[in-house]
Amino acid sequence: MKRAALAATVALAACGGHAPAGHGGGATMDGRIECRTGDAPFARACTVEEAESGAGHVLTLRKPDGGFRRLLVTRDGRGVIAADGAEPARVSVIGDRRIEVTIGADAFRLPATIAPR
């Protein structure tokens, strides 16, 4: 796997909104992203909400079952971290402009700006 650093922000946050359709397979204009829960296959079924908090830019990833995960966008090259909860977020680069964020049994595919390390 090639070594890469995520740029300061995930593309959704950098745009101040949702990435356009076809932008690296990320979010569509309706804000849907690919996700999976447990052993289910990936489907474009989750939504993304953005907000500012005292800690910084927060992405709320809403799952089809009503559950959600919150991510804090970092500025140190990691991309995102879990904003709360006991389970850490694991971030993997899966394409030129995409990352996969796994928290517990949930996984989300997000558009991202990726810079060579």
UniProtKB/TrEMBL annotation:
Keywords per UniProt: Signal
Highest taxon in the source lineage: Bacteria
Signal peptide: 1-21
PROSITE patterns the record matches: PROKAR_LIPOPROTEIN
Keyword Signal: yes
Protein name according to UniProt: Lipoprotein
